[in-house]
Design brief:
binds S-adenosylmethionine, alpha/beta, 25% helix, 18% strand, Rossmann fold, single chain, two-stranded antiparallel ribbon
Length: 262
């Protein structure tokens, strides 16, 4: 659940692209998603490839190409960079307005010769990842879940970019992001990466296995324990198997709540 509703913002098509316009009286500029922007294309080409902090956090060395779930997609920048690193990406965004902007940005990226192969590796869902994750089909279960929930607003709000302020005004503060982390843990993925501001506490107070740091951000990385036991992905179940699966463990249709030794 987000803290503020999407109301009073309007979606307007201008020069062939969708723009999100803040209500009159808010000192904010319209925003859109434009992956074809030359600065963003430059970032894709020169961002450091698999040596960049995001790629290291995702575990992309030695040519790994995991299926990545970007469970808090926002304006899709990180997810697009991940797809440009040759990973297939499932993006999920719950704000209908932000989702519409992102869908429009991806549509235009598919029409761009340079970006089309990257955009073609992305599938976008609208909805809450906490609901999406337990319902993923077997071949959609990601190896990596990437989380970048909204950070609490900074006190010096003038320093926050217009884009981020619009995002905060539309999507709220993501105060349920610890629940999203728990849902992601239960997805049964190999690795979970959570982007945090450099000085912020770990999400939900969970200590990561390690962090990859940049001057402004930190990627907290949680690894699936090698000897960990399978966990049922059904949100209401979460049983851990010590022997074999009475609950159709790891399948979204697990409905049995039979007592089970943990
Ligand atoms: C900080 S933004 C993500 C920015 C993104 N990484 C980018 O590069 O543009 C956070 C976004 O996550 C979305 N979000 C938060 N929790 C979510 C959830 N449980 N399911 C789907 N979307 C979620 C919010 O609506 C918001 O748009």
């Amino acid at each position: 659940m987000s803290d503020k509703s999407d109301s009073n913002f309007s979606l307007i098509t201008s020069s062939g692209r969708l723009e999100l316009h803040p209500p009159r009286g808010m000192s904010l500029q319209p925003i859109s998603v434009d992956f074809t922007n030359p600065a963003f294309k430059y970032r894709l080409r020169r961002g450091g490839g698999r040596g960049q902090p995001l790629a290291r956090a995702l575990g992309l060395k030695h040519g790994a190409k995991p299926l990545v779930l970007d469970a808090a997609a926002g304006l899709g920048r990180d997810g697009f960079i991940i797809a440009a690193l040759n990973c297939r990406v499932i993006m999920c965004e719950r704000s209908p307005l932000i989702h519409a902007l992102l869908a429009d940005g991806l549509r235009r990226a598919l029409e761009d010769e340079e970006l089309a192969p990257t955009a073609g590796r992305i599938r976008l869902y609208r909805g809450d990842s906490q609901i999406l994750i337990p319902g993923l089909t077997d071949n959609e279960i990601p190896q990596v879940v990437y989380l970048d929930p909204m950070f609490p607003p900074r006190r010096k709000s003038a320093l926050v970019k217009n884009e981020m302020r619009v995002l905060q005004a539309v999507a709220g503060e993501d105060s349920d992001s610890a629940g999203l982390l728990n849902a992601a843990v239960q997805a049964g993925c190999q690795r979970l990466v959570c982007k945090r501001p450099a000085q912020a506490a770990c999400l939900g107070g969970r200590r990561p296995d390690f962090s990859v740091k940049t001057p402004k951000h930190r990627f907290d990385v949680y690894l699936k324990q090698k000897n960990s036991l399978p966990i049922c992905r059904k949100a209401s179940c979460h049983r851990i198997s010590t022997t074999h699966c009475f609950h159709k463990l790891n399948f979204p249709d697990c409905v049995s709540r039979k007592a089970f030794s943990v």
